[in-house]
C-alpha cells in the first residue's frame, strides 16, 4: 500500500503584508515614544491688578461688593464710619463762619449808626472848639483894655487850642468810620477766610474718603475688608483686576532670546482653554537678577547664560483668560 506525501501549506501574501505593516507600526510607535518631547517655553497669563486702599483710618460699616463681581469706575466698594472726621468738619465749618464774618465786617466797614454817632461827636467837638475860640477872642479884647489879667487870657487860649484838637480827633474818627477798614485789614481778613475755607475743603475730602469708590473698572479679585474691623490708612481692602489688560510672562535663556526680540510675534496655546491658540507681540524684555538666573553653559569653560523676563501682549484680548493660566510656546 503506497502513501501520498502531504502538500506543504502555502503562505497567504495579504496576511504576510498585514503582519509586516503591523510590525512596522509597532516599531514606529516604540521609536516615537522613545523620542524626547518637543521643547517648549512655559509662561503664565497676567492681568492688571489694582489694590484699593483708604486714605484715612476708619471703621468699616458696610462692604458693597463681593469677589467675582464686575464693577465700573466710580462704583462704591466700602463704606466707613469716622466720628473724628465728622467732629473735625463741624469745627472747621464753625471757624469758617467766624472768619467769613470778620472778612465781611472789614469789607462793609462800620454800620450806618456808628457812622452817624461819629459824625455827631465830631459836630459836638467842632461846636465846642468854635465856642472856645469866641471866648478867647473876648478875653483877648478885655486883656487889651487892661480889664483882665494875662493868666485869664492864657487860660482862654489854651482852652481854645484843646477844643480845636478834640474837634480834629473827632473828625478823624468820623472819616475812619465813613471810609471803612483799611485795604490791608480787608486783605488780611479775606486771606484768613480763604485759609479756613481750605481747611474745610480738606476735611470734606477726608469725609468723602469714608465712601471708598473704585478708580478703575474690572472684576473684584479680593475683598479683605470685613464689617466692624478698623481699616488702617493705606492698607488695601479691595483688589480689582482688569481682565482686558492682559499679557504673558516668560523666562527665556539668553541663547534663545533672539526669538523674543522687542516687537516680534509668536503663537502660543493655553491648555486651560482647550489648547486655544493665540498670537502675542513682545513689548518688554529685561534681565532677571543674577543670583536666581545664571547657569554655566559648560563645566570648565564658556560663559554664564543669563535669564531674561519677557512680556508679550495678545494681539486680540483672549476671552476667558485669567491670571495664572499656563501659556505654552513651542520651541523652534
From TrEMBL:
UniProt keyword annotations, A-Z: Membrane, Transmembrane, Transmembrane helix
Gene3D superfamilies found in the cross-reference section: 2.40.30.170, 2.40.50.100, Helix hairpin bin (1.10.287.470)
InterPro entries: MdtA-like_BSH
Domain Multidrug resistance protein MdtA-like barrel-sandwich hybrid, chain residue ranges per copy: 49-241
Annotated TM spans: 12-31
Pfam families: BSH_RND (PF25917)
Domain of life according to the entry: Bacteria
Name assigned to this protein: Biotin/lipoyl-binding protein
Amino acid at each position: 500500500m503506497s502513501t501520498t506525501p502531504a502538500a506543504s501549506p502555502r503562505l497567504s501574501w495579504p496576511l504576510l503584508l498585514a503582519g509586516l505593516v503591523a510590525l512596522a507600526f509597532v516599531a514606529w510607535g516604540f521609536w516615537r515614544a522613545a523620542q524626547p518631547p518637543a521643547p517648549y517655553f512655559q509662561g503664565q497669563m497676567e492681568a492688571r491688578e489694582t489694590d484699593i486702599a483708604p486714605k484715612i483710618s476708619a471703621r468699616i460699616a458696610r462692604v458693597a461688593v463681593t469677589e467675582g463681581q464686575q464693577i465700573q469706575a466710580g462704583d462704591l466698594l466700602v463704606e466707613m464710619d469716622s466720628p473724628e472726621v465728622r467732629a473735625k468738619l463741624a469745627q472747621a465749618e464753625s471757624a469758617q463762619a467766624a472768619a467769613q464774618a470778620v472778612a465781611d465786617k472789614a469789607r462793609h466797614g462800620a454800620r450806618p449808626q456808628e457812622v452817624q454817632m461819629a459824625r455827631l461827636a465830631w459836630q459836638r467837638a467842632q461846636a465846642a472848639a468854635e465856642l472856645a475860640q469866641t471866648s478867647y477872642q473876648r478875653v483877648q479884647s478885655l486883656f487889651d483894655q487892661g480889664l483882665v489879667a494875662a493868666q485869664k487870657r492864657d487860660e482862654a487860649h489854651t482852652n481854645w487850642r484843646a477844643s480845636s484838637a478834640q474837634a480834629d480827633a473827632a473828625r478823624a474818627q468820623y472819616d475812619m468810620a465813613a471810609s471803612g477798614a483799611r485795604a490791608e485789614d480787608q486783605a488780611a481778613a479775606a486771606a484768613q477766610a480763604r485759609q479756613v475755607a481750605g481747611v474745610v475743603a480738606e476735611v470734606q475730602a477726608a469725609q468723602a474718603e469714608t465712601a471708598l469708590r473704585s478708580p478703575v473698572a474690572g472684576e473684584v479679585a479680593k475683598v479683605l475688608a470685613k464689617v466692624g474691623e478698623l481699616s488702617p490708612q493705606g492698607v488695601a481692602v479691595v483688589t480689582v483686576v482688569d481682565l482686558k489688560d492682559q499679557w504673558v510672562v516668560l523666562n527665556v535663556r539668553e541663547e534663545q532670546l533672539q526669538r523674543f526680540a522687542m516687537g516680534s510675534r509668536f503663537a502660543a496655546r493655553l491648555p486651560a482653554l482647550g489648547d486655544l491658540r493665540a498670537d502675542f507681540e513682545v513689548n518688554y524684555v529685561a534681565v532677571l537678577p543674577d543670583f536666581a538666573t545664571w547657569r554655566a553653559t559648560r563645566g570648565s569653560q564658556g560663559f554664564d547664560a543669563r535669564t531674561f523676563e519677557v512680556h508679550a501682549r495678545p494681539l486680540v484680548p483672549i476671552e476667558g483668560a485669567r491670571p495664572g493660566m499656563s501659556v505654552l510656546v513651542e520651541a523652534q
